[in-house]
């Protein structure tokens, strides 16, 4: 029997971050709503300065936390705040037993040392998973309750769509401490064979073409084109770039979407997952604190 060619071309699956995050948020809400009002998870976000993008993110985080029935608070500090004052603020939050998750919004003003600040947050309240102790736990495979939100969001998306990971070749483009490296480690933890690329990688397209799972976390609009992907691959686009007032990813979605098996859109892909995972992390830290 001759099969119609149209039947043989399998359309790629769009990995819907909005829907996947809503499902996760609904589950979290159910868990939180039954907790006593006075003893619910509490997230505190500290923001220093007036970076407009950071302000939008921070307000959104607080709003979603409230919608779930968690307690949340935003502490706004002036851009000229001395580092020692921010450290004191964090030390006070560390001591406050009603607070379960502390997030310092990045980037910090230039006069502050980010690693010093992140190291002051108690590892037990480190909701972003950026404290050196928690990064070390991720490296050693002894996973802490709160994993970096965007990498954990990428993994959640792969799980939600039942995309095989073990034994697959995963290529991560980007090696930042907040996205590229942790996502590589999480994929390795789940038994993928992992290659991490960066700005010095030679023949990026050839390396990416080997990927069963391709994660782009670079910050260059549409860097990844049709030439970079293998047929049927799962492509996860972490990039958020603004081009002519529009948000675009690191992947050329239109050029790639017909060739691959799965692909995340931008916006509406990894972005919404990040906030949902922040909420899950806050609940996980609350539980780990034995409350
Ligand atoms: P960084 O700028 O910290 O890191 C970018 C990485 O890309 C670096 O490792 C760099 O390599 C690598 N790189 C740069 N140019 C190339 C190139 N030509 N080829 C291959 N690799 C290259 O970015 P982040 O990791 O913080 O963020 C990456 C993207 O993800 C951004 O667009 C950001 O906005 C977005 N993002 C999205 C989030 C979400 O919620 N969806 C959350 C966080 C980030 P090298 O190390 O050699 O310099």
Summarize the structure.
The protein is of the alpha/beta class. The protein has helices spanning 5-8, 17-33, 52-68, 83-95, 114-120, 132-140, 149-160, 180-189, 204-208, 253-256, 270-288, and strands spanning 13-14, 42-48, 71-77, 101-104, 169-173, 193-197, 213-216, 234-237, 241-243, 246-248, 262-263. A six-stranded parallel beta sheet has the order 1-11-8-7-5-6.
List its salient traits.
291 residues; alpha/beta; Rossmann fold; 2 domains; 6-stranded parallel beta sheet; 3-stranded parallel beta sheet; 11 helices; globular; binds NADPH dihydro-nicotinamide-adenine-dinucleotide phosphate
Q: Which small-molecule ligands are present, each listed once?
A: NADPH dihydro-nicotinamide-adenine-dinucleotide phosphate
Content-based structural category: alpha/beta
What would the principal axes of the Cα set say about the shape?
A: globular
Q: How widely separated are the two ends?
A: 63 Å
Rounded to an integer, what's the Rg over CA atoms? 20 Å
What level of helicity do the residues show? Answer: 40-55%
Percent strand: 15-25%
CATH topology of the largest domain, which one? Rossmann fold
Order of adjacent strands in the largest pleated sheet: 1-11-8-7-5-6
Supply the CATH superfamily name of the largest domain. NAD(P)-binding Rossmann-like Domain
The CATH class designation of the largest domain is Alpha Beta
Largest sheet: 6 strands, parallel
* Parts with pLDDT < 50 across at least 5 consecutive residues: none
The total count of helices amounts to 11
> What's the mean pLDDT score?
96
CATH architecture of the largest domain: 3-Layer(aba) Sandwich
Total domains: 2
List the helices and strands in order. Answer: HEHEHEHEHHHEHEHEEEEHEH
């Amino acid at each position: 029997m001759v099969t119609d060619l149209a039947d043989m071309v399998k359309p790629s699956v769009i990995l819907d971050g909005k829907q996947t995050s809503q499902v996760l948020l609904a589950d979290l809400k159910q868990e939180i709503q039954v907790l006593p009002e006075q003893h619910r998870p509490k997230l505190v976000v500290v923001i220093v300065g007036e970076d407009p993008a950071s302000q939008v993110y921070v307000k959104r985080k607080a709003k979603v936390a409230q919608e779930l029935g968690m307690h949340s608070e935003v502490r706004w500090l002036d851009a000229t705040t001395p580092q020692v004052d921010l450290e004191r603020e964090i030390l006070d939050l560390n001591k406050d037993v009603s607070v379960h998750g502390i997030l310092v919004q990045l980037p910090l003003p230039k006069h502050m040392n980010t690693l010093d600040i992140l190291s002051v947050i108690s590892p037990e309240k480190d909701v972003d998973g950026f404290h050196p102790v928690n990064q070390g736990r991720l490296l050693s495979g002894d996973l802490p309750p709160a994993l970096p939100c965007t990498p954990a969001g990428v993994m959640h998306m792969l799980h939600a769509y039942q995309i095989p990971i073990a034994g697959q070749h995963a290529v991560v483009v980007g090696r930042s401490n907040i996205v590229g490296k942790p996502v590589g480690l999480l994929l390795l933890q789940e038994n993928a064979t992992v290659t991490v690329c960066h700005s010095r990688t030679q023949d990026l397209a050839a390396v990416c073409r080997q990927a069963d799972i391709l994660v782009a976390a670079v910050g260059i609009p549409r860097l990844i084109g049709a030439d970079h992907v293998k047929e049927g691959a799962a492509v996860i686009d972490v990039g958020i770039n603004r081009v002519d007032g529009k948000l675009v990813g690191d992947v050329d979605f239109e050029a790639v979407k017909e060739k691959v098996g799965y692909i995340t859109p931008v916006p509406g892909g990894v972005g919404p997952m990040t906030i949902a995972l922040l909420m899950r992390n806050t609940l996980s830290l609350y539980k780990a604190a034995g409350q």
